[in-house]
Amino acid sequence: MSKLIPYACMALLGASNAIAQNELGGSASKPLLGPDGKPVQQVNVTGGRASDLDERRNSVAGKQIFSREELDRNGDSNLGDVLKRLPGVTLGGRPGRGGDVRMRGMGNGYTQVLLNGERPPAGFSMESLSPDQVERVEIMRGPVAEHSAQAIAGTINIVLRDGYQQRDKQLKLTDTIEQGRHAPNVSLTAPGKVGQLTYLLSASLFENLPHDNTLTYNRDTRADGVVLKDQNVLDQSRRTAYGVHFTPRLSYKFEGGDTLNFQPFIMSFRSHGDARSDLGQNTGLVPPALQQPPEYVAALSKTHYSGTFMRGFGNWIHKLEGASKLDVKFGFGHGSSDNDTQRAQYDGAGKLQDSFSDTSSVREHSFNSGGKYTTPLGRNHGLAAGWDVELGHRVETKVSVDQNGVPQFAESGDNLTADSRRLALYAQDEWDISSQWSGYGGLRWEGIRTTSSRATGDINNSSSVFSPLLHAVYRIPGREKDQLRASLTRSYKAANVQDLIALPSIARLNSATRPDRTGNPNLKPELATGLDLAYEHYVGRSGIISATGFVRNIDNLIRRVVQQEQTSTGLRWVSTPQNIGHARTKGIELEAKFQLQELLQQGPAIDLRSNYSRFWSSVDDIPGPNNHLDSQPKQTANLGMDYRMKALPLTLGANMNWTAPTLVQSSLTQEIGTSRKRSFDVYGLWKIDSLQQLRISANNLMAESALGSNIVTTNGLSQAAYTSNQTYVAWSVKYELKF
């Protein structure tokens, strides 16, 4: 399969090239003749905003738009399942459980995720966001000045529903079934207008019942081959999660032409669950004199979590003389979360060995303001300048004690207070220089300062980055559907608050492969210089073939380093983030999508789409051959199709998502591996009438187990952990009604 998918993608690219030949002179391009035998002039009339493909084609900085058609295509219950099918986007974690969103295979914060052009509230999870709450998704491979340049891999901007052209109320009822457990979702969208005020009310309720099983095999081996530890650990968890999303939008238009918009985003989430861990000690390979009693034989735990996150987005658009305008933004955020875990560990006779209590409370507040002034400098030439200010305040309390009330780290029970301040200034100039050339030049300066107060003293961290940004588009003369893109940019990745000043996270089965995690207040931002080159050919009304190449040189690369440290509870393995040096990544991305009827005039109504990416990366200060960036696979691919039947109001579709296995030398002592990921999804859409439709889909039909390895070799000892996580098929039924 790993060899067939790239070739299949290339075959689709070849088919798209055949389309191009037909457009230039094939039979499919013959003009329509009238009764007199003369060609009839054809005029295409469109209304509303530009199509997704037109916006992509006309964007100088290379923006891809995916609106409601793409979001509704498969009837997905969460946004992560939609994103994994988009060009160049992959998800970390195992199929069906999602994970961090990645562009160009780069996780760990290299991909910037925005909500309505702003950073989302702390604790926001894209996996919990219903596609029904989203108007469109914008993907930008290179940074632009008006958004933060914290986008080494690229930017994904999620634009919430704004009610554009929506006239009907929409009700959607969804039930997803996994292992016989139901996960219902109810979504309602209602537009309206009162005088000059227009509004869109959008809300959803959901429940989820995930069950997970993880089998881990641990083995510690000395350099002379003697086995010191040989264990199997089976972890099983059951969780009930439920929540509500509410995303209203209000827009008021004043008589003078000014517009005031406001859109809050509210998410409330609750979950409770229990888990069991069974540890089996294998004694066959361990010499009797070296055998140690197991840390426990069985462990039971219960967890309760509650979180509420709110973010308000607003802007006031004021028209000035001529075509100039001032767009002033404002916003606020609030987040609160509480987590309580009780764990009890037992020996082989069922006697309680010890117990632990872990509680944490986080409260965050933020305020942001910004603005953008735009003015035309001539025909198809515009200048924009603006600012962004963001203030954040975080209070975190974490308590971790054993059954005797003994703290598990030095600052257990103390408050950690953190304040962050971010200021950015930018200017950008976008200009259609000629019929062939369009250019974009931008400058952005961004400064970040983080201050924390804790029992051991205050910690300060300051950084600033100056980012010049250049983008250009060249439209090839005589080939109106072909164009070339080029970008030269400076971007960065700032350390997050948790990596800078986080309180320790304690691992109950502490080892080199399960270390405690802590922060590092001395981290510097990673800085990247990037070059992108792309060729695009537009096909018919909605097709495109493209090839993109990129390179990123990264300085001050941040990696987590695992080592033993003396702590308040003794010698423990601890993972700490550090700047380790220089890295480089490069890659090739291919995309092809088109309607088969544009290739074969009498062909079936099938839409085909594919994308394939190949990546290379290396870290200078770590020896090869596997000194790649964290979690970056060598290859990713997607193949998909949609078939609209003529005899029935039925559309059928399928999609195959594939990610190659990874093996990364993460540090001088640690090597991490993951297995391939294959996710095969299918759906059927029955349009009952103009107001009703029914969608049935199945995700992750292959249900392959996700395998992983983590090996740390230091001080003459190799500690290895091999994991296997089960995945499951998820069936979904969605009924949609307009009224």
TrEMBL record:
Q: Which segments constitute the TonB-dependent receptor-like beta-barrel domain? A: 299-701
**Which keywords appear in this protein's UniProt record, sorted alphabetically?**
Cell outer membrane, Membrane, Receptor, Signal, TonB box, Transmembrane, Transmembrane beta strand, Transport
Query: Can you give the residue ranges of the TonB-dependent receptor plug domain?
Result: 59-154
Pfam families in alphabetical order: Plug, TonB_dep_Rec_b-barrel
* Membrane-related topology note: Multi-pass membrane protein
State whether keyword Membrane applies. Answer: yes
Write out the annotated subcellular location: Cell outer membrane
Q: Where is the signal peptide?
A: 1-20
Family (UniProt): Belongs to the TonB-dependent receptor family.
Q: What is this protein called?
A: TonB-dependent receptor
- The organism named in the record is Pseudoduganella danionis
